Amino acid sequence: MNLEGQMPMNALQAADRGKTLMIVEDEVLVAIALRDELEAASYHVLDLTDRHEQAVAVARESTPDLALVNIQLRGRDDGIELAKHLKALSIPVLLISGQVSRARSAQTVAIGSMPKPYSAVEMVEAVTYLLARIDGDKSPPRPSGLEVFEAALGDHALS
């Protein structure tokens, strides 16, 4: 589901960076703001989704480098259950939720958690950090607010 029906304005920059992200968020304005900021940072963001089933279909088709998943999704869908399915597809998940204790309970299926409220700029920093870590680069400093689940991150690291 495309919440706004528009192509990324900086698709060439995103292609240069080569990293594709998926946002699964039930709050439309939050999802759009996040997408816009991540695209401005030269990431390619897939169509926004807010349901478990749609997200799995998009993930299978596009294989994003990282999925940003809210714990509470549209209807009765649960982001932690979605994270389990995405992990089975070898897609790392960053939980983006105010439900901090539930996020911590999902350390085996997510690589980290960014508690709400966060700014879009903080999310770009968190995404950049996590993608660098997945690629084996341990030099960037961890952004404040980002909780990294080292054991799960190790499952996705290339080196």
UniProtKB/TrEMBL annotation:
GO MF terms, alphabetically ordered: DNA binding
SMART domains, alphabetized: REC (SM00448)
InterPro entries linked: Bact_response_regulator, CheY-like_superfamily, Sig_transdc_resp-reg_receiver
GO biological process: phosphorelay signal transduction system
Keywords carried by this UniProt record: DNA-binding, Phosphoprotein
Coiled coil segments of this chain: none
Domain Response regulatory, residue spans: 20-131
SUPFAM superfamilies with a match to the protein in the record: CheY-like
Protein name: DNA-binding response OmpR family regulator
